[in-house]
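re: ur question from yesterday

yeah so i grabbed the chain u mentioned. its 384 aa long if i counted rite. heres the sequnce exactly as i have it in my notes:
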Amino acid sequence: MRDYVRGLLARVARKNGWQLAEWAGHRSPDGFQRLLNSSVWDADAVRDDVREYVAEVLGDDGVLIIDDTGFIKKGITSAGVGRQYTGTSGKIDNCQVGVFAAYATSRGRALVDRELYLPKAWTGDRERCRAAKVPDEREFATKGELARAMVTRTLAAGLPARWVTADEAYGQDWKFRRLLEELDVGYVVAVPKSQQVKSLTGFWRIDELIAQAPQDAWQRLSCGNGAKGPRVYDWASARLPSIALFDGDESAHHRWVLARRSVARPEETAYYFAYAPTSTTVADLVRAAGTRWTIEECFQAAKNECGLDEYEVRRYVGWYRHITLAMLAHAVLTSLAAQAADEPEKGGFGNEPLSPRSPWQKSDASWTLSFPAPDPTPTQSPTH
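ran it thru and got these C-alpha cells back, copy pasting raw so excuse formatting
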C-alpha cells in the first residue's frame, strides 16, 4: 500500500497499474492489482484515517462541501458505468460518477469521503452487480441520498465543520437542507432560479423575488481569492420568516435567501438558500458560499497530481480502494501546501425608496422579507 501511495505522489506519466508498478520496481502490476481487488484491508477505515488527518492538518471551523465528478470509461463492465451526465465532460457520457465530500479551511482543502453512484440499470440487475462484485445489500440510492449519508457520517465522526455548502443539484433537495438543520450545522447551498420560496400567502420564484431587491440591498463583497485575486460580486440577502413547526417560538437560527450577481455581466445571477445562527453576517454567508468552488480544485488536483481518475479497475471494491488511496495522496499534498487565506473585502451601494408592495423591508441594519400577496400564480413545490 505504501508503494502504491508513493507512486500516486510521484512524477509518473500515467498512474495506472503498469506504470505505478514500473516506478516501484515491481516486475508486474499483479501486486497492485491484488491490493485493489482481493487483499484484506478496509477502505472505509482508511477513509476515516484520511478524514482525521485532514481535520488535524486544516483545523476547526471549516466548510464541508458536497459535489460529484465523473470518470470517463470505455466498456460496460466497470461498476456503475453507464451513459449519464457528468460535469467532467459537460454532457451525457459513458462514465462512472462519484459523490464526494471535501473539507476546507483557510489553510487548505482536501477530499474526506466518497461514494460510487449506481444507476438503476445496475441495481436492478443483480447478476451484473455480482459480476462487478457489488454487494447484494447495496440498493439504489440517489446522489442526494448518498450525500445525506456522507454528511451524517462525517459530522458524527467529529469533523469540525461549521458550514455545509453544495451546488444546486443538492441544494434544491429540501430533505438535504432539513437534515443539515437537524444536525445543527449552518449551510449556504445553491438553488435554481426557479426555486420556490414559501410565504404565508403563497410561493415566489426566487429569481422574481431577487429582482425586486432595492439597490441598497446589494453589497459588493469578495467571496474569497481566486487565481486572479479576490472574487468580487454583488450580493443581496434577506432573512426568511421562521417556520414554527421547526423553529419553535425563539429560534437561534435564521433562514436566508442570497443572490450573487456578476459585476461585469449583471445578467448572470446565482441563487442560494442559507441557514445560520442569528449572529451571522452577510459577509459570513458570502465566505461560505465562495468556499464551494474549493471542491473543484480538489478534483482537479487529485486527478492531475494523484491519479484519482487513472485507475483500471472494474470491481466495486477496487473503485473504493483506489479512490481512497488517491484521497490519501491528495491529503498529503494538502498538508504540505497548507497556507492561510486572505480576508474578504467589503463594499456597498446607496439607498433608494421602496415600493409599498415590495417584500423587501429594512429592519435595523439588515433586510427581511414580509411577503405581500404575490401577483404571479403560485406553484406548489418543496420549500425551504
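noticed a couple things. The longest helix spans residues 316-337. also The longest strand covers residues 91-105.
anyway ttyl
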